[in-house]
C-alpha cells in the first residue's frame, strides 16, 4: 500500500504534495520534486526540480515549530521554480530572463505585504485607535481574510487563472487516487473529487487566523512595556521577522487536527474554512489535465512517467 499523503508537504514520513502551475502541476515526494506541463503543441514535458532543501540543511529544521516554516519555505521555493519554468514552456520560450522573474517575484512580495499586512493593520488602528490590541487585530484579520477571498474571486474571472484552478483540481484528484492505491492513476483520478481535506489552503487560513491572536498578544506586550501605540509601519518591523514562529505554531496545530480528522468534530471544523476556500481555488480537471498531474507525480516518485512524456534535463533542457 502507498503511504498516506498530506498535501503541500505538511506531513511527516513519506510525503507527496504539490501545486498547480501554468498548464501543469508540480509534485513533491521525499525523493525529489518534479513539474510536468502540457506545451503549446499538446505534448507533456517534464523535468526534475533540483533544489537544496532547508529542512535537509540541519536537524533543527525537522524539529517541532521549526519544521513548519522550513516546509513552507521549501514548498514556496520549489513552487516558484516550477511556476517560472511552466511559464517559459507555455510561452514557447526556454530563455526567459531570470532578472525579470526575480523582479516579478519581488514586486508580488511587496504588494502582498502592503495589501495583506500593512493596509489591514493600518485600517484597524485608524478605526479603533483607543481599543484593545485584540480588537484592533480582530478587525485587521477580518479585513485581511475578506481581502484575500475577494482577491481569489476576482482572479477566478480570468480564463487563464481558471485553467490553473483546474490543474489545482488535477493535483488533488491525482493525490486522492494515489492515496487509494488505484491500479490506473489516470482513470481513478479522473473520477475523484477536486477537493481535499488536507489541502494547504487550510494552512494558509489557519496562519491568518493564528496571526490575529499571536500579534494581538505581541502588540499588547509592546504597548504595556513602551506605553506607546505604534503605527502600522513600525509594527511591521517586528511582525515580519516573527512570521516563521506563526508558521511553526500553525503547522503544529494543523498536524494535530490532521491526526484526528476521522474522530474529532473540532479537527474537522478547523479544516472546514480551507474546504470552503477550495471551492474557489479548484475546478474539476479533465483527463488531459489529470495525465499531466500523474506524469509529474510519477517523476517525483522516481517512476517512469511513460513514453508519451518528454523528460528534460535541468542543464541542457534536452530529453533524457
Structure description:
A hairpin with a 2-residue loop joins β1 (about 15-20) and β2. Helix content is about 60%, strand content about 10%. It is an alpha+beta fold and about 325 residues long. α6 (about 200-225) crosses α9. Strands 1-2-3-4-5 form a 5-stranded mixed sheet. The protein contains 10 helices and 5 strands.
Query: What is the rounded distance between the termini?
Result: 30 Å
Uncertain runs with pLDDT below 50, 5 residues or more?
1-14, 315-320
Largest sheet: 5 strands, mixed
The overall pLDDT, averaged over residues, is 84
Helix/strand-derived category reads alpha+beta
- What string, H for helix and E for strand, traces the elements in order? EEEEHHHHHHHHHHE
- Tell me the helix content: 55-70%
| Gyration radius over CA | 21 Å
- How many discrete structural domains? 1
Name the assembly state: single chain
Q: How many alpha or pi helices?
A: 10
Question: Reading side by side through the largest sheet, how are the strands ordered?
Answer: 1-2-3-4-5
Could you tell me the number of beta strands?
5
Strand content: 5-15%
Overall geometry: elongated
Strand and helix layout:
Blueprint: E1 16-21, E2 24-29, E3 33-38, E4 44-49, H1 67-90, H2 98-127, H3 133-155, H4 159-180, H5 185-190, H6 200-226, H7 232-239, H8 243-259, H9 265-281, H10 287-300, E5 309-312
Parallel strand pairs: 4-5
Antiparallel strand pairs: 1-2, 2-3, 3-4
Give the key terms:
320 residues; alpha+beta; 5-stranded mixed sheet; 59% helix; 9% strand; disordered N terminus
